[in-house]
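In response to reviewer comment 3 from the previous cycle, which asked for concrete evidence that the modeling workflow produces usable outputs, we include below a single protein chain processed end to end. The sequence was submitted unchanged, and the resulting structure tokens are shown without manual editing.
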Amino acid sequence: MNTKLSKWLFHSLCALLLILAQPGKVRAEGTTLRVLAWPGYADANVVAMFERRFKVEVEVTSVSSDDDLWHKISTGKFDVFAVNTAELQRYIKHNLAVPIDLGNIPNHAGQLPRFLNLAEIPGLVHHNNVYAIPYTYSEMGLIYNRKTVKTIPDSMSAMWDPDYRGRVLAFNASNHNFSVVGLLMGVQNPFNMNDAELGQAAKQLIGLRRNVLTFYATAEEAAALFAKYDIALIFGNYGAQQLKTLREQGADIGYIIPKEGALAWLDCWAITPEAGNKKLAEQWIDFMLEKTISQQLTDKHGLANTITPFPESRHNDKIIWLEPLAEPIKRKELWDRIISGDSPETF
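The workflow returned the following structure tokens.
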């Protein structure tokens, strides 16, 4: 081998070794944690704290919808992800989530009472295995205008009160509206209603139309309408976040969990079978349950956390966690007819 070629090979090898030696550039399997989460669930400062403590890298990918989450988990490679309890079931069914070792989640013991018995939360425990740990939630309570509502309501039925004709903001969604009416009707399972129950609920929702100024879609839209019109009641689909938005614009409002109970979504951390280092994924979950980390979720994003009580919530409030719907297409068909103006006689 000639001298020039030897020198070139020597320098090339040295350069390659330098690249490989740079920290963070090339890591062994399991030393980079791949997180899939909703915006605000894994802020940059939180990620940096975790990286420093555990001497690893964290790659965070955001999702924009339940469909987006399903697509990314089904086609990509992630270690840990945030998912609501209703959606979690299909991940378990398709072997896209694995059991979690509670021994590696000591901060679970510090969660609020309603989150301590995981078996009581629908969908988290299968065959005595825990598949997800609660992280953040929001009840869909009733928001009322303190300036115009003199008697604090105690039920969602207040939205039908003739005194509030044209002064109610309801949410434009088939799933939650039928479930709310199901609760008022006292059906056994508001997520699995038979045709007769759905028909009766549809007639009640038609009756609600005379009280509704409009059916809103976003928290920002509801806040803008509240500022412009004489609104008495709002169905708080976005819960704590919605209260934060309204109060930041100066709204004088109160909030109640109705006596029949409030629907609520619950987002949890789950682990995929793709996890290169399952214990590291469990350490992430435990880290996110530290009090200061969870409190940031509330202070910065207005989301209730599972460690510190939300100001408007009480321990004995009746919360009904969302479950998969048995008849989503039927609800959507009925809802489209309701908002298009069909009369009660057609149902």
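The chain has two domains: 28-138+264-314, 139-263+323-346. We consider this sufficient to address the reviewer's concern, and the full set will be provided in the supplementary archive.
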